[in-house]
Design brief:
single chain; 10 helices; 218 residues; mainly alpha
Length: 218
């Protein structure tokens, strides 16, 4: 999903710049949304056991108490969390843009700050789960966040840009493309080994630091 959404527009020759034709937009949008729906079907359906936190004797009572919430409850709570976040991001973007223009800071700073604001609740949940030794829950939060970012955001933005007649630039620059490929390669090593350690976490963190520094220094 990441490669088709963020790298493919840079290498296609049917349009100028990192953009896609109408048929290519349909292909990328359908693939992203379709893969995300398949992931949800797997996670909540017949293979939900792959994403379940191993239960210890001391956790059985807790699991019993929290397993009774219906789907409607989770949908309502999700909307209750999303609406304030979207509202804050919309109103926070204007002063951030003003500060960036005043200080002549990199334009990517605004996107980074907005991303941090939007993903903070998920980040807090993932960190708390990891500190509580519920690593599977932490991984689930990570997977859901990453897949939703591409699987939902890309198709929606493609539809909006097509309706408004705008050219949506999805392709990354050379530096960002290199970092994306590096991140995907490191993630494959991390999650395919079955076990993680401090070194792997440090590598992911350093890639993130490199991303920040390269955006500020060019």
């Amino acid at each position: 999903m990441a490669v088709f959404s963020l790298i493919l527009p840079d290498v296609t020759q049917s349009t100028q710049g990192p953009t896609l034709t109408a048929l290519q937009k349909i292909m990328v949008g359908s693939m992203s949304a379709g893969l995300y729906l398949i992931f949800l079907m797997i996670q909540t359906g017949r293979h939900r056991g792959y994403f379940a936190q191993p239960v210890e004797d001391g956790d059985q009572q807790v699991q019993h108490e929290t397993a009774g919430y219906p789907l409607l409850f989770h949908v309502v709570m999700l909307l209750c969390y999303i609406i304030p976040v979207v509202f804050l991001v919309e109103h926070f973007a204007k002063p951030v843009d003003y500060v960036i223009e005043t200080l002549a800071a990199p334009a990517a700073l605004g996107g980074i700050l907005m991303a941090v604001l939007v993903t903070t609740p998920e980040g807090i949940g993932g960190v708390r789960a990891a500190l509580g030794k519920r690593l599977q829950s932490s991984v689930n939060i990570f997977l859901g966040s990453v897949l939703a970012t591409i699987g939902l955001t890309v198709p929606i933005m493609l539809v909006i840009s097509s309706v408004l007649g705008l050219d949506l630039e999805l392709g990354l620059g050379p530096t960002e493309t290199l970092l994306l490929i590096l991140m995907l390669a490191v993630s494959i090593v991390t999650f395919s080994s079955g076990r993680t350690n401090l070194l792997q976490g440090a590598v992911h963190f350093l890639i993130f630091i490199a991303f920040l520094l390269l955006n500020f220094t060019g």
